[in-house]
Amino acid sequence: MSATTILGLTGAVVIMVVLFEMLRRHRLREKYAVIWFVIAVSAIVVAVVPGVLFGLADLVGVKVPSNLLFFLASLLLLGLTLQHSHELGRLEERCRTLAEEVGLLRLDFEQSQTESQKAQQADGEPVEDGSE
Amino acid sequence: MPHPSRLTARVLVVMPAWNERDSVAETIAEILETNPGVDILVVDDGSDDDTAARASAAGALVCQLPFNLGVGGAMRAGYRYALRNGYDVAVQIDADGQHDPRYLPKLLARLVDADVVVGARFAHKGDPYQVRGPRRWAMVLLARTLSRLAKTRLTDVTSGFRAANTRAITVFAAHYPAEYLGDTVESLVIALRTGCTVTQEPVEMRVRAAGQASQTPVRAAVYLGRAVVALGLALVRRWPAALEHAPADLGIGPAGKAGRA
Ligand SMILES: Nc1nc2c(ncn2[C@@H]2O[C@H](COP(=O)(O)OP(=O)(O)OP(=O)(O)O)[C@@H](O)[C@H]2O)c(=O)[nH]1
Ligand SMILES: [Mg+2]
Q: CB within 6 Å of ligand 1 — which residues?
């Protein structure tokens, strides 16, 4: 086995183990696990059958196969971070909406509390019906 | 039951406040003195000081946000409150005392022929409020562009002093950006895009009553750059944006308390 094969395999196995552990501990949701799983599997494939990479490089006309690997890897990372930024933006927006709602609910709650206190003080007995 | 207050418009003053303990109470008192009959909602945006307590003691309603959202977040909460509680007009007045509430009736009067009225500086020569350098250029660029969009002369689109009628309140309750310059410039673009009319009323603004001003020379230059970006984005964005985050209960939900209106 060549050094690159061992390196590729180790990397892939480490990803798999970490994935499994994170899923087991509820640290990672499946929708994010899928993409990492695909990455790990393709790393294994490339490590065990380097011919796949060579063939692919030939096909698209890249002279040095490892360049193709780096290109694909950086493209993948770019896509992932972009997706995370998008996801983060959505979360921020939702978080903001929730914060606003919490503030308004708190105000509503305090208002109705002071209102009912006032009503109780006004006629000295518990109010049954607030309508006129 | 007939509402005597219904004869005149119900006005809600929304006051975004963040660490304004030194000026908030005074500002509220001045508004109530010059405009008796308006309700004031202070949106305390995760202040570290006792802004909320002072505002409440001064006679305002206080909505405390759990953490800092920026002026845009505070204002959208304010517009939601206005919408749900049936106010006819929502007016933004800053807590730092820069906006003179004596101009409020003038702003309200202009709402007959516009949905949003901006209390604007630089409307005539000899305005005591002076801004120079890159910050001034940015303001001019923004004002010119928005004037074209609004088809009327606007001289001060970054002014936070503004009045909105129910139509604009409905729009702002769902869409009020929290991003940089979103609360002022982009919100006007949104209003125009959704078919509201925008106009301005000349006002004189005062220097800060207390606390720290947010201007330094370096910041002014940065401001210009960000203004250009923010304006460009606002112009190419599609409005109204995806309605995903607009609560379905706007206006009619359980918080709609018809009885209180
Ligand atoms: N809710 C909220 N209000 C804020 C925040 N930052 C500022 N404000 C309020 O918004 C108003 C305007 O803020 P200023 O800092 O005076 O901004 P400005 O008037 O554009 O600039 P200055 O020339 O420094 O006065 C004041 O009432 C502030 O208390 C914030 O993060 N959240
Ligand atoms: Mg100010």
A: B 16-18, 20, 43, 45, 68, 70-71, 74, 94-96, 98, 160, 208, 213-215
